[in-house]
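Researcher: Can you fold this with PMV in place?
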Amino acid sequence: MEVRARVPLKVIISGEHAAVYGYPAVSAAIGLGVRVRAVESDGEGFLIETELDGPGPGRVRARVGASGELSRVSSPGLRRELRYVASAIRVGAREFSPPPAEVRIECEAPPASGLGTSAAVSAGVLAALAALSGEELDRERLRRLVRRVELDVQGKASWVDSTTVTYGGVLSVSGREFRRLECPRDPVLVVAYSGRPSRTGEMVERVRRLVGEVGDVGERVMEVIGEVVSGVERALEEGDLERLGRLLDVNHGLLAALGVSTRELEEVVHALRGAGALGAKVTGAGGGGCAVGVFEDASRAEAAAELLELMGYRAHVTRPSPRGVRISG
Ligand code: PMV
């Protein structure tokens, strides 16, 4: 038996970091994604093969035992990237008792790019293993299992990534609660990779230290980001892309104030604005990873992406995607 899962990646449109301090965040599933193909096999445990996108050694093969232990990693330097796969297999094996399988994973963005690759890979592996086991897995249960994997690997996680990649759409996420935003005018998004990985845990810690050092001022920045998020929700629901862009620019300034922008991210944000973005900002934890620009029309967005490619940055034109996890086969 063979099954396939497709899971979208995500961008945080507004509210990263403030989410850690209890404020809502607005996120969107996007057209880029992760594909997982699982084929039942005669062997024992799980054979993993993955093409890691971006700079790096490319194809990795590894074996994961039924209880999630990693062995025979063909590029030991990539063990870190496989921890989510191993943990998803451990959780999946406990929940659904899947048969041994070969699991192939393809991802359309580099790991640690701030686009939710870890959550998407985890969701894809869990959904594929459930389907191989003949288990009905509803989205709510999947979202909780993805979060369990994130907690297992990284110790702390908000609900933003697990919820967005599982359900798809444009979402306002507050703690574990979320609501879908109806957007009469979908923005065109350019997602550009700064070329450096973004380590969420380290950045959250850095922001925590800063807030500790500057006291009230740091907390007020979080409060203002919370207000920006409310404005972003309204702008999206009213289809006011110009106001959305202005608010994203303000949001970027506040993220820079928190110390999570970098020279490359600034260059990308300014290039996006110079190329006609209505607004642009860091997306995700920062310190590397991606920036996102909002455009009204696709041809301008294409031109902006081309410019960024010429500058040496990888860039994709995409839109919010209503689709979450899909299974076939
Ligand atoms: O994991 P990323 O890069 O999409 O960013 C997560 C957003 C943070 O607010 C920085 C952390 C969190 O858990 O909400």
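Model: Folded with PMV in place. The mean pLDDT is 94.
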